[in-house]
User: Fold these one by one.
Assistant:
Number 1:
Amino acid sequence: MMQPYAKGFGGLARLDETLDAFWMGMRRYNVTYHNDMHCLDVAQMTFIVLCSEDLDAIGIRLKLRPLEYLSVLIAALCHDYAHDGFNNGYHVKTESSRFHLHGADAVQEKYHFAEAFKIIERTKLLCGLVPEDQATFRRLMLGCILSTDMSKHNDVLKNVQEMMLQIRSDQHELVTDDMSADEVQERKEQLLHLVVHSSDISFLTRPMHVQQEWAYLLFEEFFHQGDIEREKGLPVSFLCDRETVNVAKSQKPFLDFAVMPLFKVVSELSPSKDYLY
Ligand code: 5GP
Ligand code: MN
């Protein structure tokens, strides 16, 4: 799905080499949810929302360049790169090596980006691009990965909801000829952050039997963190206590307050598709 957008990069052979190296990192930890399957699932959802051939696909309406498509698809694929099965709060409270590297804000997301970008540099994926395009690729990839930090959910959603008010009065054009280059870029990037963030939590838009499988894999990982916290005498984190948490009940507020508002916006951005079952 990435190959059509890779022209102008270091060549398709380099893209293959980069993708091969990503797989190793996505399988580095034996975790039930944040592994290669979740990363592929999120990349595939991003592809559907952004790149479908029909005219209202978000990427087409945003007039994205191949460079931008590839950057966002790679961000989606790497957004949980080398996830070790513990959440940001755990890394902060245990003062892990990731915390020492990246600090308390979005510690995992910064780690995922930094590790994945090392692969991009090592495999020289960007070597065919001029420095300005390399900077755009890097900024977009970083912004999309940071947008998957759930603590940024309200900001990502609010930015786009405000933009939608304006877009509704602009004949539904996402970018228009009278906008400055900076305005176009800012709007594009905010919408792309929303696409990757919503794809990250999109399993809740699937048929019930599919949702259930993902949810139990996710909660098994949460519960494993809770077990370790209990062993270490630490307070057990929210949703991580296998003795008290009911998976089905705890999905309802997440669905109502996080998933539905996001996918309402995604559906409005690309109305010919039906994302919500
Ligand atoms: P990720 O860690 O996958 O990049 O970011 C998504 C975060 O959203 C998860 O770590 C988790 O906190 C939250 N999340 C994703 N899916 C669900 C879900 O089905 N239920 C709940 N309660 N939280 C979820
Ligand atoms: Mn994720």
Number 2:
Amino acid sequence: MNILIIGSGGRESAFAWKIAQSPQLTQLYIAPGNAGTGRYGQNVPLKVTDFDGIADFVLQHSIDMVLVGPEEPLVKGIHDYFLDRTDLRDIPVIGPQRAGAQLEGSKDFAKQFMVRHGVPTAASRSFDKATLADGLAYLETQKLPIVLKADGLAAGKGVLICTTLDEAKKELQAMLADAKFGEASSKVVIEEYLTGIELSVFVLTDGDSYKILPAAKDYKRIGEGDTGLNTGGMGSVSPVPFADNEFLDKVEERIIVPTINGLKKDGIPYKGFIFIGLMNVGGDPYVIEYNVRMGDPETESVLPRIDSDLLDLLQGVAKGDLFERSFTLSPKTAATVVLVSGGYPGNFESGKAISNVENVKDSIVFHAGTKEENGVVQTAGGRVLAVTALEDTLFDALQQATADAGRIYFEGKYFRKDIGFDLL
Ligand code: AMP
Ligand code: GLY
């Protein structure tokens, strides 16, 4: 099979690494990819939202399946675009159509979906510009802290946790009246604050049956001890020690089954990944968010723990016979440490030469923000590399990944040395 992966981050590097191991693979392409994905396949200089360009490439290179990494092309309807064209209709796209992608593209849609199908989540109400006064009055009746969420995609910045009523009112005003997050905050979900420990569960579905992928925990803050600004993710571990079988059974029964059945009841076809962001509140799972893709850097910890052929599973998704496909997981623990450019998530410089990656022997190095110019691999983004170790114990995996992160060099390199150690 000829496969095209859409995206350019650590997540897509992990997909490329895993799919390159499949005996069913003929040729792998990654659009646009990065300096690392080029080792597993061929990079194609196309933007992830250039649907016409992607279509031409797919037809010219006899692509048999398209795997979409990031949310933007899904929310913008790449899957619908393929279905709408008679010459592309039969080429499977892994990732939901626009209707299903609304689970991530609109927080209000996701909340209504959860309420409709009895999926446990924080209590909430939504407001727009016309109902701003009602929103301000509603805030007066709520406990603090309180969570404000821009309805649409806001590059991971649209969630505000307000600790005073004054701050909450100002922020609601800024989001609705002053378009703080542009069109994304033309509607705002005001949500009850949940206290607990976060983790993520990933599901692969053909719209009918599903496989529950390994759970993971990511570390979002830039600083050690989970301090400082939010980032795209500084590291991850899988499995999650506090998500035992009893908890995961609750997740399946209370969240995964009603989610899949809810999609069916609502007549929303869904072929792809569902990333369920959860809060463990005293042993009970609550959904914080749905994403319609895999997480980054969670994918870098999750995929190394899947022993089965991912391409075979994706074919099951495409053909609608996922339930028949073999699915075996590794009992080992994966730990991922992300190397970032100095200054990230604020301003940072790019174009720094990366060296010593070849000295990493016992971890997998997934590229994220990298590019190759004149034979030199350089930094080209905030998150540069993700280093994943797979070991028998969490302690060994953490030690290995952290030590290997230290072996790589580029000017301004920073990484957290405490990823996962809080879980020991
Ligand atoms: P999101 O952009 O939806 O991933 O939200 C960003 C972060 O805000 C989450 O990872 C949580 O840490 C936090 N968060 C979101 N919703 C809630 C909530 N209802 N209660 C507590 N924290 C939340
Ligand atoms: N690591 C969080 C995300 O991918 O959204």
